[in-house]
Amino acid sequence: MSAISTVGDRVADVPFLEKRDLSLLLVLPGLFVFAAFMLFPVLYLVGISFTNAAPANLFAGDGAFSVLTFGEATFVGLRNYVSVLTDPQFWNSFGITWLFVATSVALKLSLSITIALVVTSDRVRGKRLMRSLIVLPMGLPAIFTITVWRGIFSSAQFGLANQLLGSVGIEAIAWLSGRWTAFMAYNVTEAWLSYPFMVIITVSALQDVSEELHEAAKVDGAGYLSRFLHVTVPSIKRPVLFAAILTAAASFQQFLVPYVFNQGGPARANELIVVYGYREALSFSEYGRGAAISLIAVVFIGTFMWLNVKRGRLAEGVSEQ
Amino acid sequence: MSILGGMAGKLGEGARTLVLAPVETGRDAVYTLRRIRAGEQSPRGPAKSLLATVGALALCLALLFPIYWILMAALSSTGGSIYSSGGLALVPANPTLKSFLWVVGDLIVPAYTVLLNIPGTELALAFHTPKLVLLDVSRYGIENPSAFKHFLWNSITVSVPTVLISMALVVPAAYALSRRQFILRRKVLFVYVLMTQVGGGLGIALLIGLYTVYVQFGINDNKLALSVYYAATAVPFNTWLLKTYMDGIPTSYEEAAIVDGAPTWRVVTEVILPLSAAGLATVFIFTFLTGWTEFVVAQTLLGTQNYTLPVGLYSLVSEYSIPWARFSAFALTFALPIMLVYLVAQRYIEGGLSFSGMEG
């Protein structure tokens, strides 16, 4: 990594390359546009979260000026935050989100490591081909994959999950109408969506595991399991941890799966936090509350990622300089 | 062209290995079998390999089953099921392409009459172009084809500006970050890396703010405004990606060009950009796919007339009863090109995935 990030430094040592500060001008347009569409909405969200904004008052005025005054919405101080934080619905959503992070990350990790071990095993023939096949879902648009999985968990005659149950003589289940069956469906889908990413990373880590250590352990009489625990795991720990952090962040921000499956239902029971904020604002016209919820989610995910980038040295190449 | 050539070469290579793999395996198996017969090798090892391979193959098939299943649903006339009274059926009873015809709809170029006035006279030349019927689905008994082409057009008019805008923002920035030293360079890089890791969820959380601002400016149902948004969100990841590509180009090439007296702009256009062609192609694909596949923001901002393909796909599902065969055909027609692009670009993408502090 360091070799990559220090190219700039090496360039600095080349006497005839220009290195004037004007180069910042090449970066500024991108930075400016990005900030306009990321930073500005954040600030605006902060503003909205302190008002009683709803479509009726927010869009009352028109033109550029009413954007800054939040239409005719009035300032209500911390009322949105108080009402959100005292709402059991919020805590339900908050809890189910963390539960989802825990269960889906565990599922994703175990599934991906199993797959990665299988497609790197010495005993398996045609590994390369299998590897490029199984990461195929990564190339599919998320909305495609998720609607297909919604079909799989459909309780209609078409639903694959019920067909498979039916073929072994088990009665059909209304997957998306039960709280925990729906939650399970989210987990399975999320695992299927993100296993290719983790498999790619784990496979490339497994290929770096030293053969000699394995051989040495074999000579010492270590079985498969103890070799896995004492040789393989320590050498793939870092990359897998990295993937787990990213995938945990993805789970925390999962929106499409609950939204497409049953809008976080049944009866708002499984609204993951991002869905909760979105629905509160755009389905129930409570913009102020929605903004407050979204901001709380952003603060959580921001802190989580910042800690990881700092502590886990994810951006090593950058922070080193 | 060289990129396309390279990609075609790699595809060909892949296809060759794919075709030759069974032959090789067969040869291997025969050889092993002979050795076992001759008593030169114990059958335990090969048996284990066979078992492991079969197991791995089963795992692969299980993982890819949903894709197979949706394909079969599209081919069946009713969106049928793999489980019927006759037990499990892996191929639909009466496979038909009708659903795909429904998706594509009529392909008819209507007749036009072109009038050319001859200057200075009252005369005009009239040309009649013939009506071109490439595909008339009503002949196959399909009355109301889908609005696929309409959605497709919307998607194109969103994606193409997205690519143009984001390339204009990303390429200069990547060059500067890779090749120049300037104040705030490290800070910009750090922010970009941080932002590549905070994914789409942030965008959805910010959607409320974005939506309000867009509505107040009256641009919420504007495809160009959506493109600008997509381009903006694509900036950090793609700038970072292209920067790492450009970092791989040795500085000695530039030095040589400068010694030969080339001005900076020629160094950039004739050394840096051609050599980072693969990186540019990856960024091109990624930014294009941003506009092509994004769903939530498009669904929130756009009105029915401007629906893009993903939103159009979802609008089929949100109805109470879902026409599964048609839905599947629509979904596959939407996803297949992307899947092919992904297959071609797989190596680059996998290379790009290990970009962030993996070693160490």
From TrEMBL, chain A:
Q: Can you supply one Gene Ontology CC term for this chain's record?
A: plasma membrane
Key word Transmembrane present in the record? yes
Q: Which Pfam families does this entry report, sorted A to Z?
A: BPD_transp_1
Kindly list the residue ranges recorded as spanning the membrane: 24-46, 58-78, 98-120, 132-152, 158-176, 240-261, 287-307
InterPro entries, per this entry? ABC_transporter_permease, MalF_N, MetI-like, MetI-like_sf
Family stated for the protein in its record:
Belongs to the binding-protein-dependent transport system permease family.
Return the protein name.
Answer: Sugar transporter
Source organism of the structure: Halarchaeum grantii
Automatic annotation (TrEMBL), chain B:
Tell me where the transmembrane regions lie: 50-71, 151-177, 189-212, 224-242, 271-292, 324-345
Its cellular-component GO annotations read: plasma membrane
InterPro entries, per this entry?
A: BP-dep_ABC_trans_perm, MetI-like, MetI-like_sf
Q: Which domain of life is it from?
A: Archaea
Q: What is the annotated localization of this protein?
A: Cell membrane
What membrane topology was assigned to this protein in its record? Multi-pass membrane protein
Q: Does the keyword Transport apply?
A: yes
Q: Which Pfam families match?
A: BPD_transp_1
GO BP terms: namely: transmembrane transport
Task: List, for all copies, the residue spans of the domain called ABC transmembrane type-1.
Answer: 152-345
Q: Which UniProt keywords apply?
A: Cell membrane, Membrane, Sugar transport, Transmembrane, Transmembrane helix, Transport
CDD domains annotated for this entry? TM_PBP2 (cd06261)
Q: Which PANTHER family match?
A: MALTOSE TRANSPORT SYSTEM PERMEASE-RELATED, MALTOSE_MALTODEXTRIN TRANSPORT SYSTEM PERMEASE PROTEIN MALG
Family (UniProt): Belongs to the binding-protein-dependent transport system permease family. MalFG subfamily.
Spell out the protein name for this chain: ABC transmembrane type-1 domain-containing protein
Q: Which organism was this protein described from?
A: Halarchaeum grantii
